[in-house]
């Protein structure tokens, strides 16, 4: 578990499934990520995170407020599993419920996740998002990540005409 002043970044629990599914059904939360998720898709995502944790020792972990233990989203690191970025890339990622936006939680959790990864010996961590997702790009900038336009790509899992396909890349190094 990683702790910050206000947050716990921790392994997933079965009790996270319902609030994660609720977050995934929120069209505004999913605006830059694709269509809202079904409960089955949300559960499958948590299952994939648990598999990644077992295989690599890290994943996009559950994120909770320390003050009340409320689940507010996820943040962490994950090996990238497609070829559009350099082989072996580790991604920093986050997603928060809408009620937790604008409070600095994503930046706080992302900084902590990056620090954890660098302490583990990871030498480069990237983050990427669709070109239109300026809020996420601002989180990347606030954490000290640097834009890597040379690594920008079209997401291979999205259709050629999907407006979310063009992605920008940022990188952090220790």
From TrEMBL:
Keywords of the record: Transferase
Matching PROSITE patterns: GNAT
Molecular function in Gene Ontology: acyltransferase activity, transferring groups other than amino-acyl groups
InterPro entries: Acyl_CoA_acyltransferase, GNAT_dom, N-acetyltransferase
This protein's record includes keyword Transferase: yes
Domain of life: Bacteria
Transmembrane segments: none
N-acetyltransferase domain boundaries: 7-174
Pfam families with a match to the protein in the record: Acetyltransf_3
Protein name per its UniProtKB record: N-acetyltransferase
Organism: Glacieibacterium arshaanense
């Amino acid at each position: 578990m990683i702790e910050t002043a206000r947050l716990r970044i921790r392994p997933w629990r079965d009790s996270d499934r319902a609030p994660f599914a609720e977050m995934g059904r929120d069209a505004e939360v999913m605006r830059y990520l694709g269509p809202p998720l079904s409960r089955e898709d949300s559960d499958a995502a948590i299952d994939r995170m648990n598999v990644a944790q077992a295989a690599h020792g890290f994943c996009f972990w559950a994120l909770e407020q320390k003050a009340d233990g409320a689940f507010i989203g996820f943040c962490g690191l994950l090996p990238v599993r497609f070829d559009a970025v350099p082989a072996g890339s580790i991604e920093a990622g986050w997603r928060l419920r809408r009620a937790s936006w604008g409070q600095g939680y994503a930046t706080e959790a992302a900084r902590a996740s990056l620090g954890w990864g660098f302490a583990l010996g990871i030498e480069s961590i990237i983050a990427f998002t669709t070109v239109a997702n300026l809020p996420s790009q601002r989180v990347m900038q606030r954490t000290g990540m640097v834009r890597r336009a040379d690594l920008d790509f079209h997401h291979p899992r999205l259709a050629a005409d999907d407006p979310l396909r063009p992605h920008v890349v940022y990188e952090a190094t220790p």
